[in-house]
């Protein structure tokens, strides 16, 4: 079942708070800390496109990432942790459900190997979740990327990579 289309970008600032939060849920993942950070931005600023809106939220997330405040780091981690683990079957957003279905249909690598990598990733980067846009790539390619990022052992780079993740441009 297809999700309802997003409202015209020009009317977003005038929408009620709950509708602006629902837009964030559609573009990212359902996440109260993201609502706290960004719902007011959607009321205060006009955007030319949803890509512009996403970029502006990316700036907010980057500011949290670059901050030396431990509370900002925890806030960012709570937002990034809203992304479901790869291979997880119970996901809230329609985009993530589609990605998980595509990823779980790949029979070339086992689901238990993916679960083990998720665990290793989260042990290597406490408070973070591996975030990537699957975009039709196979489970083995995604797992290889996850292994490379684990080997890199750079939490700052992981936060930046998670913030840079983009949705397909079909939402403009």
List the helices and strands and how they pair.
Blueprint: H1 17-27, H2 32-44, H3 50-66, H4 70-80, H5 94-104, H6 111-124, H7 139-152, H8 155-164
Helix pairs in contact: 1-2, 3-8, 6-7
Q: Which segments are poorly predicted (pLDDT under 50) over 5 or more consecutive residues?
A: 167-172
Largest sheet: none
- The ordered string of helix (H) and strand (E) elements is HHHHHHHH
The end-to-end span amounts to 20 Å
Beta-strand proportion: under 5%
Report the structural category.
mainly alpha
The residue fraction in helices comes out at 55-70%
According to DSSP, the number of beta strands is 0
Q: How many whole angstroms does the radius of gyration measure?
A: 16 Å
What does this structure look like?
The protein has 172 residues and is mostly helical. The chain has eight helices and no strands. The chain has helices at 17-27, 32-44, 50-66, 70-80, 94-104, 111-124, 139-152, 155-164. It is globular, with a radius of gyration of 16 Å. Residues 167-172 have low confidence and may be disordered.
Provide a short characterization of the protein structure.
By secondary structure, the chain is an all-alpha fold. The chain has helices at 17-27, 32-44, 50-66, 70-80, 94-104, 111-124, 139-152, 155-164.
């Amino acid at each position: 079942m297809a999700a309802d289309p997003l409202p015209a970008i020009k009317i977003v600032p005038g929408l009620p708070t709950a509708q602006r939060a629902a837009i964030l849920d559609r573009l990212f993942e359902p996440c109260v800390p993201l609502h706290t950070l960004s719902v007011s931005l959607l009321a205060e600023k006009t955007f030319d496109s949803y890509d512009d809106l996403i970029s502006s939220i990316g700036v907010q997330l980057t500011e949290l990432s670059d901050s030396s405040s431990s509370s900002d780091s925890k806030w960012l981690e709570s937002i990034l942790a809203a992304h479901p683990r790869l291979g997880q079957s119970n996901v809230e957003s329609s985009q993530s459900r589609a990605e998980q279905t595509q990823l779980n249909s790949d029979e070339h690598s086992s689901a238990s190997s993916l679960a083990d990598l998720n665990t290793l990733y989260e042990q290597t980067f406490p408070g973070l979740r591996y975030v990537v846009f699957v975009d039709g790539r196979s489970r083995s390619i995604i797992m290889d990327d996850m292994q490379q990022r684990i080997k890199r052992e750079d939490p700052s780079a992981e936060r930046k990579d998670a913030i840079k993740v983009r949705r397909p441009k079909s939402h403009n």
